[in-house]
Design goal:
The complex is a heterodimer of chains A (about 290) and B (about 250). Chain A is an alpha/beta fold and about 290 residues long. Chain A has 10 helices and 12 strands. In chain A, helix 3 packs across helix 4, helix 5 crosses helix 7 and helix 8 crosses helix 9. The chains are: A alpha/beta (about 290), B alpha/beta (about 250). Chains A and B meet through helix 4, helix 5 and helix 6 of A and helix 3, strand 9, helix 4, helix 5 and helix 6 of B.
Chain lengths: ~290, ~250
Amino acid sequence: MTKGPRDKTMTIDEVVGELKDGMTIGIGGWGPRRKPMALVRAILRSDLKDLTLVSWGGADVGLLVRAGKVRKLVYAFVSLDSIPLEPNFQRARQSGTIPEVVELDEGMFQTGLRAAAQRLPFLPMRAGLGSDVLVNNPWLRTVTSPYDDGEELVAVPALPLDAALVHLNRADRHGNATYLGPDPYFDDLFAMAADRTYVTCEQIVDTAGLTVDTPVQRLLLSRMMVSGVVETPNGAHFTTCTPDYERDEKFQRAYATAASGTDEEWAAFEERFLSGDEATYQAAVTAFGEEQA
Amino acid sequence: MSDVTRAEVCAAAVADAFKDDGEIFASPMGLMPMLGVRLAKLTSNPDLVISDGESLFLAGVPPLFAKADVVEGWIPFRKVFDVVAYGKRHVMMGATQVDREGNQNISAIGDFARPKRQLLGSRGAPGNTVNNRTSYWVPKHSPRVFVESVDVVSGVGPRRAREAGPAAERFNDIHRIVTNLAVLDVGGPDDTVRLLSVHPGVTVEEVQEATGFDLAAPADIPETRQPTTEELVIIREVLDPRKLRLKEVPE
Protein backbone atom coordinates (compact mmCIF):
# COMPACT_ATOMS: atom_id res chain seq x y z
CA MET A 1 0.00 0.00 0.00
CA THR A 2 1.39 3.41 -0.90
CA LYS A 3 0.47 6.20 1.40
CA GLY A 4 0.03 9.75 0.17
CA PRO A 5 1.14 12.87 1.98
CA ARG A 6 -0.99 13.81 4.94
CA ASP A 7 -4.24 15.68 4.78
CA LYS A 8 -3.82 19.12 6.40
CA THR A 9 -7.34 20.46 6.02
CA MET A 10 -8.68 22.21 9.07
CA THR A 11 -11.14 24.95 10.02
CA ILE A 12 -10.32 28.62 10.52
CA ASP A 13 -11.08 28.26 14.22
CA GLU A 14 -8.66 25.34 14.45
CA VAL A 15 -5.99 27.55 12.86
CA VAL A 16 -6.63 30.31 15.37
CA GLY A 17 -6.55 27.67 18.12
CA GLU A 18 -2.92 26.97 17.20
CA LEU A 19 -1.94 30.64 17.61
CA LYS A 20 -0.85 31.94 21.02
CA ASP A 21 -0.76 35.28 22.79
CA GLY A 22 2.41 37.23 22.04
CA MET A 23 3.18 35.41 18.77
CA THR A 24 4.77 37.09 15.76
CA ILE A 25 2.37 36.64 12.88
CA GLY A 26 3.07 37.46 9.24
CA ILE A 27 0.11 38.26 7.02
CA GLY A 28 0.56 37.67 3.28
CA GLY A 29 -0.91 39.56 0.34
CA TRP A 30 -0.18 43.25 -0.21
CA GLY A 31 -2.10 46.29 1.06
CA PRO A 32 -5.72 45.62 0.06
CA ARG A 33 -4.85 42.66 -2.18
CA ARG A 34 -5.34 38.92 -1.56
CA LYS A 35 -5.30 39.14 2.22
CA PRO A 36 -6.30 36.14 4.39
CA MET A 37 -9.24 38.12 5.75
CA ALA A 38 -11.27 35.11 6.98
CA LEU A 39 -8.37 34.31 9.33
CA VAL A 40 -8.05 37.96 10.33
CA ARG A 41 -11.76 37.96 11.21
CA ALA A 42 -11.31 34.73 13.17
CA ILE A 43 -8.48 36.36 15.17
CA LEU A 44 -10.80 39.31 15.86
CA ARG A 45 -13.33 36.89 17.39
CA SER A 46 -10.69 35.13 19.48
CA ASP A 47 -9.09 36.03 22.83
CA LEU A 48 -5.65 36.35 21.22
CA LYS A 49 -3.69 39.38 22.34
CA ASP A 50 -0.26 41.06 22.38
CA LEU A 51 0.47 40.00 18.81
CA THR A 52 3.40 41.22 16.76
CA LEU A 53 2.10 41.76 13.23
CA VAL A 54 4.34 41.76 10.17
CA SER A 55 2.46 42.99 7.12
CA TRP A 56 2.55 45.09 3.97
CA GLY A 57 -0.59 46.42 5.50
CA GLY A 58 -4.18 46.97 4.48
CA ALA A 59 -7.43 46.45 6.38
CA ASP A 60 -5.85 43.41 8.07
CA VAL A 61 -3.71 45.81 10.06
CA GLY A 62 -6.53 48.35 10.46
CA LEU A 63 -8.96 45.79 11.92
CA LEU A 64 -6.46 44.16 14.27
CA VAL A 65 -5.10 47.43 15.68
CA ARG A 66 -8.63 48.78 16.13
CA ALA A 67 -9.48 45.66 18.10
CA GLY A 68 -6.41 46.17 20.32
CA LYS A 69 -4.83 42.85 19.32
CA VAL A 70 -1.47 44.30 18.36
CA ARG A 71 1.40 45.00 20.73
CA LYS A 72 3.92 45.59 17.99
CA LEU A 73 3.45 46.41 14.32
CA VAL A 74 6.11 45.93 11.65
CA TYR A 75 5.07 47.64 8.41
CA ALA A 76 6.29 49.73 5.47
CA PHE A 77 2.90 51.21 4.65
CA VAL A 78 -0.76 50.66 5.46
CA SER A 79 -3.14 51.52 2.62
CA LEU A 80 -6.44 50.60 1.00
CA ASP A 81 -5.21 51.78 -2.47
CA SER A 82 -8.40 53.48 -3.65
CA ILE A 83 -8.54 55.00 -0.16
CA PRO A 84 -4.87 55.86 0.36
CA LEU A 85 -4.85 56.19 4.16
CA GLU A 86 -6.20 53.31 6.28
CA PRO A 87 -8.44 55.07 8.80
CA ASN A 88 -8.20 52.54 11.64
CA PHE A 89 -4.42 52.44 11.39
CA GLN A 90 -4.26 56.23 11.21
CA ARG A 91 -6.45 56.58 14.25
CA ALA A 92 -4.45 54.04 16.22
CA ARG A 93 -1.17 55.79 15.42
CA GLN A 94 -2.53 59.23 16.21
CA SER A 95 -4.01 58.11 19.51
CA GLY A 96 -0.92 56.09 20.43
CA THR A 97 -2.68 52.75 20.91
CA ILE A 98 -0.03 50.61 19.20
CA PRO A 99 2.61 50.18 21.92
CA GLU A 100 5.49 49.59 19.50
CA VAL A 101 5.90 50.28 15.78
CA VAL A 102 8.68 49.41 13.36
CA GLU A 103 8.34 51.30 10.09
CA LEU A 104 10.65 49.93 7.41
CA ASP A 105 11.21 50.64 3.74
CA GLU A 106 9.05 48.18 1.77
CA GLY A 107 12.09 46.58 0.14
CA MET A 108 13.77 46.14 3.54
CA PHE A 109 10.73 44.13 4.46
CA GLN A 110 11.35 41.67 1.64
CA THR A 111 15.01 41.46 2.60
CA GLY A 112 14.12 40.78 6.24
CA LEU A 113 11.73 37.99 5.25
CA ARG A 114 14.34 36.59 2.87
CA ALA A 115 16.94 36.55 5.64
CA ALA A 116 14.51 34.69 7.89
CA ALA A 117 13.62 32.30 5.07
CA GLN A 118 17.33 31.57 4.58
CA ARG A 119 17.94 31.26 8.35
CA LEU A 120 20.39 34.14 8.24
CA PRO A 121 20.64 36.81 10.98
CA PHE A 122 20.55 39.63 8.41
CA LEU A 123 21.11 40.52 4.77
CA PRO A 124 22.86 43.68 3.56
CA MET A 125 21.01 46.34 1.60
CA ARG A 126 21.28 49.97 0.61
CA ALA A 127 17.68 50.86 1.53
CA GLY A 128 17.37 52.74 4.79
CA LEU A 129 20.74 54.53 4.60
CA GLY A 130 20.34 58.24 5.29
CA SER A 131 16.62 57.93 6.06
CA ASP A 132 14.73 58.18 9.34
CA VAL A 133 14.06 54.44 9.20
CA LEU A 134 17.44 54.16 10.92
CA VAL A 135 16.67 57.07 13.27
CA ASN A 136 13.25 55.78 14.40
CA ASN A 137 14.58 52.24 14.77
CA PRO A 138 17.90 52.91 16.50
CA TRP A 139 18.46 49.19 17.06
CA LEU A 140 19.02 48.72 13.31
CA ARG A 141 22.71 48.22 12.54
CA THR A 142 24.93 48.71 9.54
CA VAL A 143 27.58 46.32 8.28
CA THR A 144 30.79 47.12 6.44
CA SER A 145 31.69 45.15 3.35
CA PRO A 146 34.76 42.98 4.06
CA TYR A 147 35.89 43.49 0.47
CA ASP A 148 37.93 46.32 -1.04
CA ASP A 149 34.92 48.60 -1.64
CA GLY A 150 34.38 48.87 2.14
CA GLU A 151 30.78 50.06 1.64
CA GLU A 152 28.72 50.46 4.80
CA LEU A 153 25.28 48.96 4.23
CA VAL A 154 22.18 48.36 6.32
CA ALA A 155 22.23 44.94 7.99
CA VAL A 156 18.51 44.26 7.56
CA PRO A 157 17.62 41.92 10.42
CA ALA A 158 15.76 38.71 9.71
CA LEU A 159 12.01 38.89 10.32
CA PRO A 160 11.31 35.39 11.62
CA LEU A 161 7.65 34.55 12.13
CA ASP A 162 5.96 32.16 14.50
CA ALA A 163 3.15 31.81 12.01
CA ALA A 164 2.32 33.02 8.50
CA LEU A 165 -1.23 33.42 7.23
CA VAL A 166 -1.78 33.57 3.47
CA HIS A 167 -4.72 33.32 1.09
CA LEU A 168 -4.35 31.77 -2.38
CA ASN A 169 -6.77 30.90 -5.13
CA ARG A 170 -6.42 27.09 -5.11
CA ALA A 171 -4.78 24.50 -2.89
CA ASP A 172 -4.81 20.75 -2.46
CA ARG A 173 -5.40 19.02 0.87
CA HIS A 174 -1.68 18.71 1.45
CA GLY A 175 -0.78 22.39 1.16
CA ASN A 176 0.40 22.81 -2.43
CA ALA A 177 -1.15 26.07 -3.58
CA THR A 178 -1.47 28.28 -6.67
CA TYR A 179 -2.10 31.95 -7.19
CA LEU A 180 -4.12 32.74 -10.32
CA GLY A 181 -3.93 36.54 -10.20
CA PRO A 182 -1.32 38.97 -11.50
CA ASP A 183 1.13 38.92 -8.62
CA PRO A 184 2.38 36.25 -6.19
CA TYR A 185 3.18 39.05 -3.73
CA PHE A 186 5.52 37.52 -1.12
CA ASP A 187 3.45 34.63 0.17
CA ASP A 188 6.20 32.06 -0.42
CA LEU A 189 8.68 34.20 1.52
CA PHE A 190 6.23 34.59 4.40
CA ALA A 191 5.81 30.80 4.38
CA MET A 192 9.53 30.13 4.51
CA ALA A 193 10.14 32.81 7.15
CA ALA A 194 7.59 31.14 9.46
CA ASP A 195 7.63 28.15 11.77
CA ARG A 196 4.09 27.33 10.70
CA THR A 197 2.13 28.50 7.66
CA TYR A 198 -1.61 28.34 7.28
CA VAL A 199 -3.11 28.66 3.81
CA THR A 200 -6.68 29.62 3.20
CA CYS A 201 -7.95 29.31 -0.35
CA GLU A 202 -11.00 29.90 -2.49
CA GLN A 203 -11.21 26.23 -3.38
CA ILE A 204 -9.54 22.98 -2.44
CA VAL A 205 -8.97 20.79 -5.50
CA ASP A 206 -7.20 17.48 -5.96
CA THR A 207 -3.50 17.69 -6.70
CA ALA A 208 -3.92 17.01 -10.42
CA GLY A 209 -6.49 19.79 -10.57
CA LEU A 210 -3.89 22.38 -9.56
CA THR A 211 -2.17 22.23 -12.96
CA VAL A 212 -4.93 20.93 -15.21
CA ASP A 213 -5.59 24.37 -16.70
CA THR A 214 -2.88 26.40 -14.96
CA PRO A 215 0.84 26.68 -15.73
CA VAL A 216 3.03 24.93 -13.19
CA GLN A 217 4.86 28.22 -12.53
CA ARG A 218 1.78 29.37 -10.63
CA LEU A 219 2.38 26.75 -7.92
CA LEU A 220 3.75 29.17 -5.34
CA LEU A 221 3.64 27.07 -2.18
CA SER A 222 4.90 23.55 -1.74
CA ARG A 223 3.26 21.43 0.94
CA MET A 224 6.59 21.18 2.78
CA MET A 225 6.11 24.86 3.71
CA VAL A 226 2.53 24.43 4.91
CA SER A 227 1.00 23.28 8.19
CA GLY A 228 -2.68 23.73 7.52
CA VAL A 229 -5.15 24.31 4.67
CA VAL A 230 -8.62 25.80 4.91
CA GLU A 231 -11.17 26.33 2.17
CA THR A 232 -12.69 29.78 2.75
CA PRO A 233 -14.70 30.91 -0.31
CA ASN A 234 -14.67 34.71 -0.55
CA GLY A 235 -12.16 34.50 2.29
CA ALA A 236 -10.11 37.47 1.04
CA HIS A 237 -13.18 39.74 1.03
CA PHE A 238 -13.09 42.77 0.84
CA THR A 239 -9.61 42.67 -0.66
CA THR A 240 -8.86 41.45 -4.18
CA CYS A 241 -8.61 37.78 -5.08
CA THR A 242 -8.15 38.09 -8.83
CA PRO A 243 -9.46 36.36 -10.94
CA ASP A 244 -12.00 34.89 -8.51
CA TYR A 245 -13.14 38.39 -7.55
CA GLU A 246 -11.91 41.96 -7.38
CA ARG A 247 -11.91 44.26 -4.39
CA ASP A 248 -15.39 45.09 -3.05
CA GLU A 249 -15.03 48.86 -3.36
CA LYS A 250 -18.51 49.62 -2.00
CA PHE A 251 -17.88 47.54 1.06
CA GLN A 252 -14.43 49.04 1.50
CA ARG A 253 -15.98 52.51 1.40
CA ALA A 254 -18.50 51.48 4.04
CA TYR A 255 -15.66 50.08 6.16
CA ALA A 256 -13.56 53.24 5.80
CA THR A 257 -16.52 55.51 6.53
CA ALA A 258 -17.35 53.61 9.71
CA ALA A 259 -13.70 53.50 10.74
CA SER A 260 -13.31 57.25 10.33
CA GLY A 261 -16.65 57.97 12.03
CA THR A 262 -17.77 58.09 15.63
CA ASP A 263 -17.35 55.21 18.07
CA GLU A 264 -21.06 54.51 17.62
CA GLU A 265 -20.70 54.25 13.85
CA TRP A 266 -17.82 51.81 14.22
CA ALA A 267 -19.76 49.81 16.81
CA ALA A 268 -22.66 49.56 14.35
CA PHE A 269 -20.32 48.28 11.62
CA GLU A 270 -18.83 45.72 14.02
CA GLU A 271 -22.26 44.63 15.16
CA ARG A 272 -23.51 44.15 11.63
CA PHE A 273 -20.45 42.47 10.10
CA LEU A 274 -17.97 41.30 12.71
CA SER A 275 -20.03 39.99 15.61
CA GLY A 276 -20.72 36.51 14.22
CA ASP A 277 -18.76 33.73 12.58
CA GLU A 278 -17.43 33.67 9.00
CA ALA A 279 -20.73 32.33 7.58
CA THR A 280 -22.59 35.15 9.32
CA TYR A 281 -20.10 37.65 7.90
CA GLN A 282 -20.55 36.32 4.37
CA ALA A 283 -24.34 36.42 4.71
CA ALA A 284 -24.15 40.03 5.93
CA VAL A 285 -21.90 40.89 2.99
CA THR A 286 -24.38 39.34 0.57
CA ALA A 287 -27.20 41.37 2.13
CA PHE A 288 -25.06 44.51 1.92
CA GLY A 289 -24.37 43.82 -1.76
CA GLU A 290 -28.07 43.42 -2.49
CA GLU A 291 -28.86 46.69 -0.72
CA GLN A 292 -26.25 48.49 -2.79
CA ALA A 293 -27.29 46.96 -6.11
CA MET B 1 -3.47 75.11 -30.35
CA SER B 2 -4.80 77.68 -27.98
CA ASP B 3 -5.84 77.71 -24.36
CA VAL B 4 -3.03 75.61 -23.04
CA THR B 5 -3.86 74.69 -19.45
CA ARG B 6 -1.50 74.62 -16.48
CA ALA B 7 -2.12 70.87 -16.22
CA GLU B 8 -0.80 70.44 -19.76
CA VAL B 9 2.30 72.48 -18.96
CA CYS B 10 2.86 70.20 -15.95
CA ALA B 11 2.46 67.06 -18.08
CA ALA B 12 5.10 68.30 -20.51
CA ALA B 13 7.42 69.21 -17.61
CA VAL B 14 7.04 65.71 -16.17
CA ALA B 15 7.73 64.26 -19.63
CA ASP B 16 10.92 66.32 -19.83
CA ALA B 17 12.12 64.79 -16.57
CA PHE B 18 12.17 61.40 -18.33
CA LYS B 19 13.39 62.39 -21.77
CA ASP B 20 17.08 61.65 -21.25
CA ASP B 21 16.61 58.46 -19.23
CA GLY B 22 17.13 56.02 -22.08
CA GLU B 23 15.86 52.45 -21.75
CA ILE B 24 14.85 52.24 -18.10
CA PHE B 25 11.71 51.46 -16.09
CA ALA B 26 9.73 54.67 -15.61
CA SER B 27 7.66 54.33 -12.42
CA PRO B 28 5.12 57.12 -12.04
CA MET B 29 3.09 57.28 -8.79
CA GLY B 30 -0.20 59.04 -9.39
CA LEU B 31 -2.09 60.55 -12.28
CA MET B 32 0.08 63.46 -13.46
CA PRO B 33 3.35 61.50 -13.30
CA MET B 34 1.65 58.71 -15.30
CA LEU B 35 0.40 61.19 -17.90
CA GLY B 36 3.84 62.79 -18.22
CA VAL B 37 5.68 59.47 -18.49
CA ARG B 38 3.33 58.21 -21.19
CA LEU B 39 3.70 61.51 -23.01
CA ALA B 40 7.49 61.11 -22.91
CA LYS B 41 7.20 57.57 -24.27
CA LEU B 42 5.10 58.81 -27.20
CA THR B 43 7.44 61.73 -27.95
CA SER B 44 10.94 62.26 -26.56
CA ASN B 45 11.81 58.79 -25.24
CA PRO B 46 10.12 55.80 -26.93
CA ASP B 47 12.58 53.43 -25.22
CA LEU B 48 11.03 53.96 -21.79
CA VAL B 49 9.70 50.79 -20.16
CA ILE B 50 6.28 51.44 -18.60
CA SER B 51 3.89 49.35 -16.54
CA ASP B 52 0.18 49.20 -15.80
CA GLY B 53 0.98 50.15 -12.20
CA GLU B 54 0.18 46.58 -11.16
CA SER B 55 2.30 43.79 -12.57
CA LEU B 56 2.60 44.12 -16.36
CA PHE B 57 5.07 45.89 -18.62
CA LEU B 58 3.05 47.46 -21.44
CA ALA B 59 4.31 47.39 -25.01
CA GLY B 60 1.79 49.99 -26.09
CA VAL B 61 0.90 53.29 -24.47
CA PRO B 62 -2.75 53.11 -23.42
CA PRO B 63 -4.75 56.11 -22.16
CA LEU B 64 -4.82 56.72 -18.40
CA PHE B 65 -6.52 53.87 -16.54
CA ALA B 66 -7.35 51.96 -19.76
CA LYS B 67 -6.88 48.21 -19.82
CA ALA B 68 -3.55 46.93 -21.07
CA ASP B 69 -3.26 46.02 -24.72
CA VAL B 70 0.01 44.35 -25.69
CA VAL B 71 2.11 43.15 -22.77
CA GLU B 72 5.91 42.95 -22.96
CA GLY B 73 6.85 41.75 -19.50
CA TRP B 74 5.95 40.83 -15.96
CA ILE B 75 6.80 43.11 -13.05
CA PRO B 76 5.23 41.87 -9.81
CA PHE B 77 6.27 43.70 -6.64
CA ARG B 78 9.15 41.31 -5.92
CA LYS B 79 10.68 42.18 -9.29
CA VAL B 80 10.13 45.90 -8.72
CA PHE B 81 12.45 45.62 -5.72
CA ASP B 82 14.96 43.78 -7.90
CA VAL B 83 14.87 46.59 -10.48
CA VAL B 84 15.25 49.22 -7.73
CA ALA B 85 18.50 47.55 -6.65
CA TYR B 86 19.51 46.99 -10.31
CA GLY B 87 19.12 50.72 -10.77
CA LYS B 88 17.53 51.00 -14.23
CA ARG B 89 14.55 52.86 -12.90
CA HIS B 90 13.30 56.41 -12.48
CA VAL B 91 10.46 56.82 -10.01
CA MET B 92 8.35 59.93 -9.63
CA MET B 93 6.71 59.85 -6.23
CA GLY B 94 4.37 62.17 -4.37
CA ALA B 95 5.58 64.16 -1.37
CA THR B 96 3.60 65.42 1.60
CA GLN B 97 6.67 67.44 2.59
CA VAL B 98 9.91 68.37 0.81
CA ASP B 99 12.62 70.37 2.56
CA ARG B 100 15.43 72.70 1.54
CA GLU B 101 17.82 69.78 1.29
CA GLY B 102 15.55 67.73 -0.93
CA ASN B 103 14.42 65.26 1.72
CA GLN B 104 10.87 63.95 1.28
CA ASN B 105 8.26 62.82 3.80
CA ILE B 106 5.32 60.48 3.17
CA SER B 107 5.44 58.82 6.58
CA ALA B 108 3.91 61.05 9.25
CA ILE B 109 3.37 64.69 10.24
CA GLY B 110 4.57 65.69 13.68
CA ASP B 111 6.51 63.50 16.08
CA PHE B 112 6.95 60.00 14.67
CA ALA B 113 6.30 58.35 18.05
CA ARG B 114 2.84 59.94 18.25
CA PRO B 115 2.11 61.65 14.93
CA LYS B 116 -0.33 64.47 14.54
CA ARG B 117 -1.21 62.90 11.23
CA GLN B 118 -0.24 59.41 10.19
CA LEU B 119 0.37 59.19 6.44
CA LEU B 120 1.07 56.15 4.27
CA GLY B 121 4.33 55.06 5.81
CA SER B 122 7.73 55.33 4.16
CA ARG B 123 6.80 52.85 1.42
CA GLY B 124 9.76 52.47 -0.94
CA ALA B 125 11.12 56.01 -0.60
CA PRO B 126 14.21 55.16 1.50
CA GLY B 127 15.24 52.43 -0.94
CA ASN B 128 14.36 54.37 -4.09
CA THR B 129 16.44 57.39 -3.16
CA VAL B 130 19.66 55.45 -2.53
CA ASN B 131 19.24 53.14 -5.53
CA ASN B 132 17.66 54.81 -8.53
CA ARG B 133 16.79 58.20 -9.97
CA THR B 134 13.93 59.77 -8.02
CA SER B 135 11.72 62.76 -8.82
CA TYR B 136 8.73 64.24 -7.00
CA TRP B 137 5.37 65.56 -8.13
CA VAL B 138 3.67 68.19 -5.97
CA PRO B 139 0.20 69.17 -7.22
CA LYS B 140 -0.22 72.00 -4.67
CA HIS B 141 2.96 73.98 -4.18
CA SER B 142 2.63 75.56 -0.72
CA PRO B 143 4.61 76.35 2.43
CA ARG B 144 2.93 73.33 4.03
CA VAL B 145 4.66 71.08 1.49
CA PHE B 146 7.94 72.94 1.04
CA VAL B 147 9.20 73.16 4.60
CA GLU B 148 12.53 74.06 6.16
CA SER B 149 12.94 70.55 7.51
CA VAL B 150 10.70 67.51 6.95
CA ASP B 151 9.18 65.83 10.01
CA VAL B 152 10.27 62.35 8.88
CA VAL B 153 12.91 61.65 6.23
CA SER B 154 11.42 58.99 3.95
CA GLY B 155 13.14 59.99 0.69
CA VAL B 156 16.79 60.88 1.21
CA GLY B 157 18.14 64.14 -0.21
CA PRO B 158 21.73 64.58 -1.41
CA ARG B 159 23.17 65.98 1.81
CA ARG B 160 21.74 63.25 4.03
CA ALA B 161 22.97 60.68 1.51
CA ARG B 162 26.47 62.19 1.58
CA GLU B 163 26.50 62.20 5.36
CA ALA B 164 25.39 58.56 5.46
CA GLY B 165 28.47 57.53 3.53
CA PRO B 166 29.57 56.41 0.07
CA ALA B 167 27.11 53.48 -0.09
CA ALA B 168 24.21 55.90 0.33
CA GLU B 169 25.60 58.62 -1.90
CA ARG B 170 26.68 56.36 -4.74
CA PHE B 171 23.30 56.09 -6.50
CA ASN B 172 21.43 58.98 -4.86
CA ASP B 173 19.99 60.98 -7.74
CA ILE B 174 17.18 63.41 -6.94
CA HIS B 175 16.36 64.61 -10.42
CA ARG B 176 13.36 66.95 -10.59
CA ILE B 177 10.58 68.32 -8.44
CA VAL B 178 7.67 69.29 -10.68
CA THR B 179 4.85 71.30 -9.08
CA ASN B 180 1.74 73.12 -10.23
CA LEU B 181 3.81 76.34 -10.21
CA ALA B 182 7.35 75.48 -11.23
CA VAL B 183 10.13 73.02 -11.96
CA LEU B 184 12.89 72.61 -9.36
CA ASP B 185 15.91 70.42 -8.72
CA VAL B 186 18.52 70.04 -5.98
CA GLY B 187 21.29 71.90 -7.81
CA GLY B 188 21.39 74.89 -5.44
CA PRO B 189 24.33 75.72 -3.13
CA ASP B 190 25.26 72.62 -1.08
CA ASP B 191 22.76 70.57 -3.08
CA THR B 192 19.73 72.52 -1.91
CA VAL B 193 16.43 72.95 -3.72
CA ARG B 194 16.75 75.31 -6.67
CA LEU B 195 14.21 76.89 -8.95
CA LEU B 196 14.72 75.90 -12.61
CA SER B 197 11.68 77.43 -14.31
CA VAL B 198 8.31 78.96 -13.50
CA HIS B 199 5.20 77.91 -15.38
CA PRO B 200 3.70 80.48 -17.80
CA GLY B 201 1.67 82.99 -15.80
CA VAL B 202 3.58 82.37 -12.55
CA THR B 203 6.19 84.75 -11.13
CA VAL B 204 9.34 83.85 -9.23
CA GLU B 205 7.95 85.82 -6.27
CA GLU B 206 4.82 83.70 -6.22
CA VAL B 207 6.88 80.51 -6.13
CA GLN B 208 9.08 81.90 -3.35
CA GLU B 209 5.98 82.90 -1.38
CA ALA B 210 4.58 79.39 -1.73
CA THR B 211 7.84 77.90 -0.45
CA GLY B 212 8.62 77.70 3.27
CA PHE B 213 12.36 78.29 2.86
CA ASP B 214 14.59 80.57 0.82
CA LEU B 215 14.81 79.05 -2.63
CA ALA B 216 18.03 79.04 -4.53
CA ALA B 217 16.97 81.06 -7.56
CA PRO B 218 19.57 82.05 -10.13
CA ALA B 219 18.98 85.31 -11.98
CA ASP B 220 16.82 85.13 -15.11
CA ILE B 221 14.64 82.16 -14.30
CA PRO B 222 13.13 80.99 -17.58
CA GLU B 223 9.53 80.08 -18.20
CA THR B 224 8.66 76.38 -18.29
CA ARG B 225 8.18 75.53 -21.96
CA GLN B 226 4.73 75.29 -23.46
CA PRO B 227 3.68 71.85 -24.73
CA THR B 228 4.03 71.47 -28.50
CA THR B 229 1.01 71.03 -30.74
CA GLU B 230 1.88 67.34 -31.08
CA GLU B 231 2.00 66.97 -27.30
CA LEU B 232 -1.32 68.74 -26.85
CA VAL B 233 -2.99 66.41 -29.35
CA ILE B 234 -1.53 63.39 -27.57
CA ILE B 235 -2.58 64.64 -24.12
CA ARG B 236 -6.08 65.69 -25.16
CA GLU B 237 -7.05 63.06 -27.68
CA VAL B 238 -4.97 60.01 -26.86
CA LEU B 239 -3.88 59.82 -23.23
CA ASP B 240 -6.44 61.80 -21.28
CA PRO B 241 -9.62 62.44 -23.27
CA ARG B 242 -11.59 62.47 -19.99
CA LYS B 243 -9.55 65.46 -18.74
CA LEU B 244 -8.63 63.71 -15.51
CA ARG B 245 -5.58 66.01 -15.41
CA LEU B 246 -7.83 68.90 -14.41
CA LYS B 247 -8.66 67.10 -11.16
CA GLU B 248 -4.97 67.24 -10.24
CA VAL B 249 -4.31 70.75 -11.47
CA PRO B 250 -7.54 72.75 -11.86
CA GLU B 251 -7.52 75.90 -13.95
